[in-house]
Amino acid sequence: MALATAVVVAAGFWTASPAETQSARPARIAGKPNMNGIWQALNTANYNIVSHPAKAALAFRPGPVVPVPAASVVAFGAVGAVPAGVGIVEGDEIPYLPEARKKQQENEANWLDRDPEIKCYLPGVPRANYMAMPFQILHSDKAVFLAYEYAGAVRNILLKDPGPAPVDSWMGQSVGAWEGDTFVVTATGFNDQSWFDRAGNHHSDKLKVVERYTMQGSDHMWYEATIEDPLTFSKPWKMRFPLYRHINPDARLNQFKCVEFVEELMYGKFRKTPVQ
Amino acid sequence: MKRTVIGFALAALAASTLAAQTPARTAQPSAGLRTPDGKPDLQGTWTNATITPLQRPPTVKNLVLSEAEAARMEGAVVERRDRLNRPSDPNRPAPPQGGDGSTGAAGNVGGYNNFWLDPGERVAVVDGQRRSSLIIDPPDGRIPARTPEFLARQKERAKQTTGRGQYDHPEYRPLAERCLLSFGPTTPLIPNYFYNNNLQIVQTLDHVMILMEMVHDARIVRIGGKHVPKHIRPWMGDSIGHWEGDTLVVDTTNFPPLQNFQGSSENLHVVERFRRVDANTINYRFTVNDPTTFTAPFTGEIPFRAMDELIYEYACHEGNYALANVLSGARNEEKRLGTKQEK
After folding, report:
1. Across the A/B interface, how many CB contacts are shorter than 8 Å?
2. Mutate which of B317, B321, B340 to disrupt the A interface (most A C-beta within 10 Å)?
3. Residue A1 scores a pLDDT above 50
4. In chain A, what's the furthest Cα-to-Cα distance?
5. Which of 3.40.50.970, 2.40.128.20, 1.10.2020.10, 3.30.70.860 is the CATH number of A7-50+96-270?
6. ipTM attached to this prediction
7. Interchain contact A23–B (C-beta under 8 A)
8. What's the whole-model pTM score?
9. What distance separates the 2 farthest-apart alpha carbons in chain B?
10. Contact B200 A156 (CB under 8 A)
11. Whose CA is closest to B287, among B132, B136, B129, B63?
């Protein structure tokens, strides 16, 4: 019975033409490739932007033979394990300055206390683009706007440079311009609070990210980011990965307002009656 | 076109009671205010700040204010602002212990002073009419009476959220204090009469995105399609839009029970109508219906005025020291009074 249903559903998908499944997409908007849609990276970079093997957990404690999952995460079992992944960093190495490398290692060892993602803080750039949740690009003749599912983060890409950001922020200030068919976004004005991944890779408030969004047909694009931060890295470095468009007819950006989800973690100890 | 609008406004002023029931229709947006696919262009940054209250004060009879009445209201706001903006007396004493008895974020022991606030300085002008209330229907400009169901709900909720008990758990604190949503309603887009009443609209062929500065909340309206299943209740609800001629009509349902607008329930249904009327204005009309809360639907209108300023990040949760301090303060107070935190 279940099998029969699956076959019928599958048949429905196969017979629907692209025009029937999503509203017609013009190939170009104001002469530039149409970037509208819901996009997602298909990688494990949010765990670690450099190549990494699978491991049992995100946090460990010393064990009798090998380190074992930290007490606070052991209940997750296989669900709390980290999948292996191919890095997205060019050359697979981040050119940290010595002090900054030490800080990354400390961050990784103290991940549970330090990763801003755990507290549902805004993800920063470029991390927002490769979290395991999609984001929507709203691209019109007048605007390019990125709305992220994670934490409801947003970026309005300014198409006219207003000059340096007047204040530091989590998502920074983004200024975009087309170079041929590549949309180039220069993002600055960051605070030093966001991370690149769950492995403690970090930056200072001198971070500058130059992103290149290059459409490859209607359903995928290359994303490339050049990272500069003279307080953290000895030289600029690059990351690169494809972004895929959700093509199912019901695709929509869902809501992951995790502020509510972390209230017990952050404020549970202040309840009149703490939950046992 | 401008002349047509003014001409209509004068006529409407003479028949304000009628206008309250049948709001004016204005001319079509000109070619420059349309998107490439011919729809009215709603894009840009806008403010819905105004000093016109949601509900008409009982002492005011008409929806439409005279020029002199509006000037008086605006003059009073400017006078108050200028008075509050004067430098503070460096020799002033500390506020009295426990606060000065006033309420709200700007009162009590002194939260924000006027420097930080931006509640608006102008009365709402819709189709040339200076308005005494945002609500235009019912004609008295007031929210219709609440239902007995609402009163029962309110009583239940009051048990948790009034008196000392309101500090027992983070879930009892207001959504804005928890940084879940703005101080004001997000659907419909009513100003909060406090600050940051700014929004940005981006419009594509199949979506209209409405970003509210607080709390960086992007409501993404799908053009066409069906609402999400009933058990999915996003903050701000689920919005579906369609075009009726030159008006964008947005239908929002699936509200979570906690996001109550004027005490509404999860049955809240909001229909919004966006009309671009000139280079600087969107006329925004909202109808609120919730038969389990209000004995009748009600409708209001708000002008969105174009801004030439950018909207910056309102990162609320990341700097939310208040919620922890409010709760831990209550625990300390209990300790002081001898009612220890229950273990």
Report:
1. 116
2. B317
3. no
4. 63
5. 2.40.128.20
6. 0.90
7. yes
8. 0.89
9. 71
10. yes
11. B136
